């Protein structure tokens, strides 16, 4: 079976394929449906990109000192020398570019021959620009992040027409300790990149980066780690196993981590179901199933509490905030705690974490941290943060007009919501 992540099958004429997919792209823009000859990964990406203007180029989020400060604290800065060592030849051969982006698709580094870089600038393929699918449509780094898999995007498979002269291959990179998505590594060039070697190269580079990141972390036998930020279902790593928990087990585990001293069944029931929906039999059954998942050596009862050393991303973030490390805390924040959960205890903890992080970032008045906060799902609609960012940016900074426009948009939206609320009939 052909590799679905490769753009061209062996023996396919690239020029013919460009024409076929180009016609399919035009048909999609006209009718909103892609013919079957388009790869599934591309068709689904086009559907996610359908609201974009196919002639637009991605916006630049960060520039100058703000970009430099953001890059300096990003985890992938530690493996930039590795990227240059493995892909440096490609980046300087006059035909390719090497690019590294963060988990939001924001380009951190773009390197290559000056002539190729000048061509890439015409489509805003520059450091600080947003190349996630939401802002740039179908492209290798953005789509690799969206599907969490290495992928090639070939010529007319790109959603944006200005990008269709390029071909690229990208692979996502994860934090080896938590599994959190850190960003992606990409190579961009001409049609000749549509071969198995370019995809294998970015895959190998991503794995080498994860290995180097892991080598820089202390080995702690017997330590269990939990990832629960920015995801609806927590992931548990124990004894070399990766276990994805269901929603209810994720909530229970987070609540137990938040209360290392232990919780009674009644307390857990209140945290999980609320005052009017206590179900002790159901709760005991859920805890019994969770014990089978974790193993009896990790979950104690009377009171219910976790044994051994269990570390979680949200407790690490809280520890960094306690130490006054707002940059480190924000760098460890991919999104809210179990955002899909409505369990009262989890909801309270989620608001507490987001509130503390927001306050710490606002207190710094650092434009790089404020820009990073407003790029998160939680901070995207934070009017006060956008106002603080506008104040922190010097007049003439590329980011400032975008911040002012967002302030105006949010102020109008909030005013409309308030007016709508006041017009509601009162009983």
From TrEMBL:
This is GAF domain-containing protein. Residues 99-212 form the GAF domain. It holds the Pfam family GAF. It comes from the Bacteria.
